Amino acid sequence: MKHALDVDLELVKKYNVPAPRYTSYPTALQFREDFSEEEITRTMREDVAAGGNAVSLYVHIPFCRTLCRYCGCTNVPATNAADADRYLDALEKEIALRARALAPAGTPLRVEQLHFGGGTPSALTPAQIDRLSAMLRAAFAFAPDAEISVELDPRTATPEIVAAFRRLGCTRASLGVQDLDPRVQVAIRRVQPEPVVRAAMETLRAEGFTSVNCDLIYGLPFQTPESCEKTLDALLALAPDRFAVFSYAHVPWLKPQQKLLEAEGGLPSPNEKLALFKTVAERLTREGFVYIGLDHFAREDDELVRALRERRLQRNFQGYSTHAGLPIVALGMSAISQSARTFLQNDKTLDGYEARIAAGTSAHVKGLLVSEEDLRRRAIITSVMCDLELDYAKLSRRLGLDFEKTYAAELAALAPLAADGLVAFRADGGGLDVTRVGRMFVRNIALPFDAYFRAGAPNRHSKTV
Fold first, then answer.
1. What phi-psi label fits residue 303: left (phi over 0), alpha (psi between -120 and 50 degrees) or beta?
2. How far apart are CA 59 and CA 90, in angstroms?
3. Which are the contacts of 118, defined by CB distance < 8 A and separation ≥ 6?
4. Angle of CA points 328, 332, 336, to nearest 5°
5. Residue 431 in 3-state DSSP?
6. Is 279 in contact with 219 (CB distance < 8 Å)?
7. What is the number of alpha carbons within 13 Å of residue 71 lying toward its C-beta?
8. SS3 content of the chain, % helix, strand, coil (to 5)
9. How far apart are CA 104 and CA 81, in angstroms?
10. Exposed (0-12), middle (13-18) or buried (19+): which is 269, by Cβ within 10 Å?
11. What is d(CA 392, CA 396) in angstroms, rounded to the nearest whole number?
């Protein structure tokens, strides 16, 4: 029971405010349409070279066989295999463009991490997965121990699909479970009974996947603490290595299909939704999962837990990662590339993405060059989000300034959070630590160091819990 977490609902209500998730800093809201492609690409190439040409690849597969009513992802309904073939044609051209733009002549980029996200990567056919694998292997050099992961829909994670991703080199998978209650599944238009999820898990293990994560969502129609407990009963019996527990973001003005959930009825009230999070968080930590922070829970021996304890944890657009600081080369519609000093975002629409690639130009529609102050504040926010501490002396050395003096106003803003037990200022005055309770509120703790965030101003961020 050493990992057990006691969730104080009154504290959650107090701090449940809109805030960035800090998968990047500056956040995507700061990306600009009036950017210099040439300057940003040159800077990104320098950043990649500084790291020995090692990169993390992200490949966005936007297609979904069906459109789930809760979904907030960038996706496209899959109509036939020809749509995916045409998309792979565009990807192949983009791969060549990016490899040529970022790699020194005759020296391919070295891939240390590769993630397939969506949409639903398992909406591809085995032949299409094999083709994608060949495209990537031809353009990049893969490290022998490269970490390769994929997001899968249990309904399409057939033995043939799983085997194809295993041939590609995948050893990690994330299963989109969301909820196992039949009434909830019908309401969200994602019917996948427990035997379907179990079969997917068994297939992954049989094919040699060494780490499997289960994605859950709380705040869906008709969920109750009791139904969430039953979902956890079934999933814990399958022995996943990690859980990602996401808060349902109801934004029907951005995702029109969510209006159908309103018509369906049964959406929990804000207080009921927080009770769902309490149920899941307390149950997982009682079962021995370590609460990394935000929505991540992992087993004691998981690499994420080791990285947390060894101060090697990192955050990027895929969430928490153990590959600290790698530039991300992102491919496909809506994908966001980043390096130490740059961001580039692809066209968010399928037609726009494919048209740009067909014209022989880059798919980038937004970009950002990061300032020196941005870099300093990113280091501070990363220390909160990933190291769960602010060590004043360490940060002063790293940033080349007197941290405590330079950011005195921001540190003062954390005093109320210390009074509520979210952070603890060190007795020797040398820093502060995020408490176990504070791990639920790392976004709140990071917020004072965000130079772009303005409390009370209109924003597009989700609430912190």
1. alpha
2. 12
3. 60, 61, 62, 63, 64, 73, 75, 151
4. 40
5. strand
6. no
7. 21
8. 45, 20, 35
9. 35
10. exposed
11. 6
Token pair, residue 214, equals 């289960």
Give the Cα separation of 83 and 81 in Å (integer).
Answer: 5
Distance, CA of 226 to CA of 228 (rounded, Å): 5
Name the nearest CA neighbour of 315 among 404, 388, 243, 250: 388
The verdict on pTM exceeding 0.70 is yes
φ, ψ (nearest 5 deg) of residue 63: -80, 145
Predicted confidence pLDDT, tens digits, the chain (465 residues): 567 788 888 998 999 888 898 989 999 999 999 999 999 999 999 999 999 999 999 999 999 888 888 887 777 877 688 999 999 999 999 999 999 999 977 789 999 999 999 889 999 999 999 999 999 999 999 999 999 999 999 999 999 999 999 999 999 999 999 999 999 999 999 999 999 999 999 999 999 999 999 999 999 999 999 999 999 999 999 999 999 999 998 878 878 888 888 887 889 998 899 899 999 999 999 999 999 988 899 999 999 999 888 888 888 887 888 876 799 999 999 999 999 999 999 999 999 999 999 999 999 999 999 999 999 999 999 999 999 999 999 999 999 999 999 999 999 999 999 999 999 999 999 999 999 889 889 999 999 999 999 866 656 777 887
Q: Give the Cα separation of 306 and 424 in Å (integer).
A: 23
Six-digit token string for 104: 């020194």
- The answer to whether residues 292 and 305 touch, using CB atoms and an 8 Å cutoff, is yes
Amino acid at 248: Y
The answer to whether 219 touches 69, Cβ cutoff 8 Å, is: no
Helices 126-139 and 159-168, axial angle in degrees (round to 10) = 10
Confirm if 64 and 77 have CB atoms less than 8 A apart. yes
**C-alpha torsion angle, residues 314, 320, 323, 324 (rounded to 10):** -10
Report d(CA 412, CA 189) in Å as an integer: 47
Copy the structure tokens of residue 183.
């009434």
d(CA 168, CA 117): 15
Give the position of tokens 């004072």: 448
